[in-house]
Amino acid sequence: MDLLFLGTSSGTPTRARNVSAVALLEGLGKGWHLVDCGEGTQHQVLRSPLSLHELQAIYITHVHGDHCYGLPGLLASAGMSGRTRALPIVAPAGIQAWIEATLRMSETHLPYPLEFQATEALGDWRHGDLRIEATALSHRVPSYAYGFSEASPDPRLDTARLDAEGIPRGPLWGQLAQGLDVEHQGQRLRGEDYRLPTRPPRRVVIAGDNDRPALLAAACRDTQVLVHEATYTRAVANAARAEFGHSTADAVAAFAQSVALPNLVLTHFSPRYQADPTRSPSIQDVRQEAAASYHGRLFLAQDFLRLRLDKDGLLERVEAERRQAP
Amino acid sequence: MDLLFLGTSSGTPTRARNVSAVALLEGLGKGWHLVDCGEGTQHQVLRSPLSLHELQAIYITHVHGDHCYGLPGLLASAGMSGRTRALPIVAPAGIQAWIEATLRMSETHLPYPLEFQATEALGDWRHGDLRIEATALSHRVPSYAYGFSEASPDPRLDTARLDAEGIPRGPLWGQLAQGLDVEHQGQRLRGEDYRLPTRPPRRVVIAGDNDRPALLAAACRDTQVLVHEATYTRAVANAARAEFGHSTADAVAAFAQSVALPNLVLTHFSPRYQADPTRSPSIQDVRQEAAASYHGRLFLAQDFLRLRLDKDGLLERVEAERRQAP
User: Fold this and answer.
1) Structural domains of chain A ordered from first start
2) How confident is the model at residue A326 (pLDDT cuts 50, 70, 90)?
3) Which of A11, A205, B73, B132 registers the highest number of CB atoms within 10 A of its CB?
4) Where is the active site (chains A, B) (predicted)?
């Protein structure tokens, strides 16, 4: 399970950082999930190893433009590149009507169906080998975190149950072992019910804009990674209250420490933070502030940073494959 | 008067070309006009010497996404960077309602007013030192070309008229010479009426998607530069009729030759044309096809190409200042 950051700037793009988008890559195969889709996300995908054909679903945390204005163009490009498979979009109220209005206005006819799921009514949603649920956060507009858990981590067949239910060994067992549903003596057996995990599931929480990290306490249980905004440092937030509804690096770090989170990834930095550590404020100020309160593994996202969560729950940077301009 | 191309790809971005946008820079000062605003135009502006503060007006040729999906993000970023000056947007029906719905959906409150002008009812519009008019083209949706003419090229005061009307020499003459309106004996004198051009006006026509270049015959009179799409070569257009409503390089070139146009700039190329001339089809195929029919000065646009139209009507490439990533 990899995270590949496609945009890590708050509000507006800079020359080094695009606005919000992060890809969650499945452990097997080329499938990936997209959380947020700021303007230019499809351009970032072009510069990554990701393909719009392999996109499994899109999740929008909230309706602010830097988190969703890239949707219409990405959907149109997926269509022009020949996608025919349905695409689920999990998004708060407002996004569906806007996407439909935008496609209508621009007379864009997608050759594949969009399957909208309202975040507000998501419940415990399953897609492929992931279970996904949403947690409400605190921001100027309704904002959500999405939790992604492996549904069936390295499963083994529950042979004790099969024997107890008198289901004979043979091809049926093989199909159930693959997670397929089968018919047996007029009954439908769900593969899912006959598989047992052999290790704890990996779990990642990716949060939208939020000024109360503590709202994530329950979501962060049995979670290896939290991706959370740290728009400002405390010093800058105190000095310039131009925008509200965001978290400081300090507040997120203290929360992560309080719930003993093993890995914390900060993102969505105000464009004022400079890459050059000799200029002020710099992105190193964000790191220092967070590191003072949080003693787990701390990462600051940048565009095209790729992190891999292994089966033991360790998060490590992997060398990004980045396509060069031709 | 400069043209600076910000996007030159048709339909979808590529790693080398963004979707449609072109800046027309005024001869004096830092003011510029933007024709079309595909997704990622604000990102291209960040990589150029242009500033959103100095943007004079936006013109949209038609409602297809690759020509307008960048508008909401660019407008929001202009607001976040502190713009307060009103921004005129000349656009076909549909764009105004969509922009307003998009800003409402995303709860984006711009700190400056938008002044929408419907292209359909533009007439002879004046903005700063330019006169702008629209010509209807032929495409799958209503599409327009915009003609930009210098309103007052290197003006001199019409002293003969002033003397004939008995307007006394003095500060009044100086104000009229600057193009200002003045009061004289209870009458309002318009500076514009007392200035004479000392050379022919420069004139540039920038066309939207169009499959009938001959519709531009009247617009191209006394015009030094036509910017027109050449989405396909004839060979490709004949082989793959997937999309209609576009021009071949051949058709645009033949038209430009027939009206003795001095400078032709082709743009909006299908992503299938490769930059590498050894691959097929290549962008060189487009050039060769156009050059076979057109014998004026031919340019193929690429992102960040900058062309300068001098006062004698000569169009020449200038070295692009391109900002480097920090």
Assistant:
1) 2-154+197-318 (3.60.15.10), 156-193 (no CATH)
2) very low
3) B73
4) 66
